[in-house]
């Protein structure tokens, strides 16, 4: 991490920005940034994102810093994630319309756009209209921001949008159960009850702090099993109720516990 300091200094000086000017733009102190640039302190993702935002007017510097930030996030798919972020920043949806992205890639993209209001605005727009793949990819990124208000919007959108909801259910089932994609699609569409082992797998996912929509999908899938195994499902949903932060997720959990279809509330 310390080796990144000189690169940050080079990006700043290339933009003809003083250390004091960078401190004013980022909110970090001049002495702190000086230590980062000299390698005395680590170049954290927060610092790199602050530099990226301050120097965002230059495409080359912006791309360099985005790449640096992405490599610091464990589990990243840096090339794909950074290419997608560049597209979102330019209000282009082509890459997100091409193929459904993975949970890990969505987490990286979400981390890189977390404080970028225009990018979030584009994703909200695409979640509501566009191809099914674009809609579900946009929802997947937004669901990982950790913002309860946006979580509510994502879940509301998935409730209305049968195509993207099915794709999200399929992706969650495939990841949680380590199941081939076609088999996950069958499980998502059939509504067949889960085994006890599968219930426990979705119990963990229903508390996943990184993906509000995956939590909601887990509630839907668990709810289908409730008529045949109410004791286990009620226990899992009761635990989820105590940790959930999204209003829409709370409504869905409560509806399922009451024997109602959460898609209708």
Give a structural overview.
By secondary structure, this protein is mostly helical. It has 3 domains: 2-71, 434 Repressor (Amino-terminal Domain) (Orthogonal Bundle); 75-145, no CATH class; 158-265, no CATH class. It is built from 16 helices and no strands. It has helices at residues 5-14, 19-26, 30-38, 45-54, 59-71, 78-89, 103-113, 117-128, 132-142, 148-160, 162-176, 181-190, 196-205, 212-225, 230-243, 247-257. The protein is elongated, with a radius of gyration of 21 Å.
Please tell me the total number of domains: 3
Strand content is under 5%
Overall structural class, as computed from helix and strand content, comes to: mainly alpha
Order of helices and strands: HHHHHHHHHHHHHHHH
| Count of discrete alpha- or pi-helical segments spanning 4 or more residues | 16
Strands, total number: 0
User: Mean pLDDT score, rounded?
Assistant: 86
- Helical amount: 55-70%
Shape call: elongated
Oligomer: single chain
Radius of gyration: 21 Å
Main sheet? none
Termini gap: 48 Å
Extract low-pLDDT stretches: 72-77
Write the layout of secondary structure elements.
Elements: H1 5-14, H2 19-26, H3 30-38, H4 45-54, H5 59-71, H6 78-89, H7 103-113, H8 117-128, H9 132-142, H10 148-160, H11 162-176, H12 181-190, H13 196-205, H14 212-225, H15 230-243, H16 247-257
Helix pairs in contact: 1-3, 4-5, 5-6, 6-7, 7-9, 8-9, 9-10, 9-11, 11-12, 11-14, 13-14, 13-15, 14-16, 15-16
């Amino acid at each position: 991490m310390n080796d990144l300091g000189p690169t940050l200094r080079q990006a700043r000086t290339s933009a003809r920005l003083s250390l004091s000017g960078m401190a004013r733009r980022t909110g970090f102190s001049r002495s702190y940034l000086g230590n980062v640039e000299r390698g005395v302190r680590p170049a954290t993702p927060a610092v790199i994102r602050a530099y990226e935002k301050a120097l965002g007017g230059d495409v080359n510097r912006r791309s360099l810093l985005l790449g640096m930030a992405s490599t610091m996030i464990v589990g990243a798919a840096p090339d794909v994630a950074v290419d997608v972020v560049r597209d979102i920043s330019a209000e282009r949806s082509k890459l997100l319309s091409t193929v459904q992205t993975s949970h890990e890639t969505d987490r990286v993209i979400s981390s890189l756009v977390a404080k970028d209001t225009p990018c979030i605005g584009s994703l909200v727009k695409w979640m509501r209209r566009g191809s099914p793949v674009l809609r579900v990819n946009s929802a997947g990124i937004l669901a990982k921001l950790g913002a309860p208000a946006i979580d509510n919007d994502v879940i509301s959108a998935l409730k209305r949008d049968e195509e993207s909801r099915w794709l999200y259910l399929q992706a969650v089932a495939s990841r949680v159960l380590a199941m081939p994609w076609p088999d996950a699609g069958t499980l998502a569409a059939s509504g067949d009850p889960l085994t006890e082992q599968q219930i426990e797998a979705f119990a963990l996912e229903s508390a996943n702090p990184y993906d509000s929509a995956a939590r909601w999908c887990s509630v839907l899938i668990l709810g289908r099993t409730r008529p045949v195994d109410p004791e286990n499902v009620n226990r899992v949903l009761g635990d989820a109720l105590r940790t959930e932060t999204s209003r829409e997720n709370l409504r869905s959990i409560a509806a399922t516990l009451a024997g109602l279809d959460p898609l209708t509330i």
